Amino acid sequence: MPGPFIDCPQPYRPGDPIAPYDRFVLVGHYCAQVRFVTYMTPGFPVSMFETIADVIGAELHLEQTMSGPAPGTDPFADGTFDLGWICSVSFADLLLRRRSPSIRPAGVAWVPDDPDAGGRPVYFGDVVVPPGSPIRSFGDLRGATVGCNDPVSLSGNYALRFEIIRRGGDPDGFANLVFTGGHQRSLDMIGEGLLDAAVVDSVVRTCRARSDESVDGLRVIERLGPWPTQPMVASVDVPPGLLADMSKRLIEASLVDPLAAQLRGAALTGLVEVDEHHYAPVRRALARI
Questions:
Q1: 166-210 confidence digits (pLDDT tens)
Q2: Stated pTM of the model
Q3: Buried b (16+ CB within 10 A) or exposed e, 224-263
Q4: E strands within 131-196?
Q5: How far apart are CA 78 and CA 126, in angstroms?
Q6: CB count, 10 Å around CB of 5?
Q7: How far, in Å, CA of 117 to CA of 161, rounded?
Q8: Is residue 158 a contact partner of residue 171, using CB atoms and an 8 Å limit?
Q9: 198-to-41, 81, 217 alpha-carbon distances in Å
Q10: How far apart are the first and last CA of the chain?
Q11: CA 129: distance to chain centroid?
């Protein structure tokens, strides 16, 4: 359960202000400290998630080693966290792993500032190479050293593997896939000449390219996707009414500063409502491998 729960003198009603309770929210006649974890930094700005946490009155935790819970672990089932922003692969894995899933979608996802996204909460795994690279097409990646984010990343790992399989190849033999530990590090290693190519989150690449000429100069030889953008999830123990209210607050807050400014700074245009069906393409793709 989100907690620890303690008796509160007044009931929580949807629409009541959260901030005055100093990161505590009222649930019926109970108070619960909401623990919110993001696995999306440092690819996305920490300040953006600090603002999100402030909007929903949550205590923020950063997990920066992978894009989601490590395989075989579930911090939502064991009560470590109540809310999380995780990779779509981890979301699908946590839903498929157990007969009674520990999470459900919070109903919120972000929309990239990308014409190819068409105003939808979708993004791409961008395959990038240095400007002078002889690699011109996806097929030219055969035998190359390609940087990937981490083992549970969609845009920085699975999107590439799905595409290799779709083309009739073996992901483990097609190219030398190297886990760099993050999209930003993959972009760094391309610039340092340590990789022939990299597959990175299109939003992360777009954002960094706005202020980094070396990244702006990389050639995108393939856009893998579109795929659903990373979801916000909640433990099934979070009361539905509270979750609905927090999700509504976030979407409304994304229209105005300071959250709107944070989203723009991360190459995002806003937050929109989504449901579990939005992530069906990820579940289907995972089921095929």
A1: 999 999 999 999 999 999 999 999 999 999 999 999 999 999 999
A2: 0.88
A3: bbbbbbbbbbbbeebbeebbebbbebbbebbeeeebbebb
A4: 145-148, 176-179
A5: 35
A6: 14
A7: 21
A8: no
A9: 18, 32, 14
A10: 34
A11: 23
Among 287, 281, 286, residue whose Cα is nearest residue 158: 286
Q: How far is Cα 29 from Cα 93, in angstroms, rounded to an integer?
A: 34
d(CA 193, CA 202): 20
Return the residue matching tokens 């999209």.
Answer: 183
How many Cα atoms sit within 13 Å of 220 on the Cβ side?
A: 15
Q: Are 170 and 164 in contact (CB under 8 A)?
A: yes
Could you give the CA distance from residue 109 to residue 223 in angstroms, rounded to a whole number?
Answer: 20
Any bridge partners for residue 231, and if so which?
Answer: 109
Nearest to 45 by CA among 197, 147, 183: 183
Q: Kindly report, residue by residue over 201-256, the tens digit of the pLDDT.
A: 999 999 999 999 999 999 999 999 999 999 999 999 888 888 898 999 999 999 99
* Tokens 């981490």, located at residue: 150
Q: pLDDT per residue over 106-140, tens digit each?
A: 999 999 999 999 999 999 999 999 999 999 999 99
For residue 222, the tally of other CB atoms under 10 A from its CB is 20
**Domains, the chain:** 6-112+229-287 (3.40.190.10), 122-227 (3.40.190.10)
Beta bridge partners of 205: none
Q: How far is CA 8 from the centre of its chain?
A: 34
Residue 154's Cβ-count burial label (10 Å; 0-12, 13-18, 19+) is: buried
